[in-house]
Design a protein that fits this description.
By secondary structure, this protein is of the alpha+beta class. It is built from four helices and five strands, in the order βααβββαβα. Strands 1-2-3-4-5 form a five-stranded mixed beta sheet. The longest helix has 15 residues, at 11-25.
Length: 180
Amino acid sequence: MARVPFERNNSQHLDALVSIWNAACGADLAINARLVEYNTQSATGAIQAGQLAMSAGEPVGFVLASALPNDPPTSPPEVGWIDAIAVAPKFQRQSVGRDLLGWAEDWLRQNGCTHARLGGGLRPFVPGLPVELGNIAHFKTRGYAEQRRVWDVARDLHENLPQRLQPAGGLMRPAQPADA
C-alpha cells in the first residue's frame, strides 16, 4: 500500500474522495464533488493536507487533516482536526485506515497540534464521528474519547429556552430585513 499527497486541484483526486467516502459511508452520509471542492479550499489562517492510499495504482482510502495555528480566538492552536477519513469497504480491516490516521496525527503534531478532533473542522464533512458507521470502538483504541459537549445547530430556539436566554420583556424572533 502506497500513499500519495492529496492535490485539491486534481479532479481525479476530488472524484476519488467522493467515490471512497460514498462507498464507505453510504447514502445517508453521501457527499458530492462540490462539497469536496468547497471543504478543501483554503480558509483564512488554516492549513490542510491529505493523503490518498493507493493499491495497484487506484485510490482506496484517504485522510484530510487541518489546523488553525494562529487564530486562538477561533480554535486553540494545539487542537487540529481529522477532517475526513474513509477507506473503500473492500480494503477495510487491512490497516489502510490505521496508516492514514497515523499519517494525519503525525502531520498535526508537526504543525504544533497535541490534540485532534474527528470531524467538525472549519469546513466539516460531518460534525463529528458518525455513530451510524459503528466504528467508535476503533477510534477509542487509538486514544480518541467521546466528547460530551453537544451543539444542536438545528433546534428551534422557541422550544424550551433556558431561563437565562428568555428576553426580558421583549420579543425573541428571527431578524427581519427592516431590523438592519
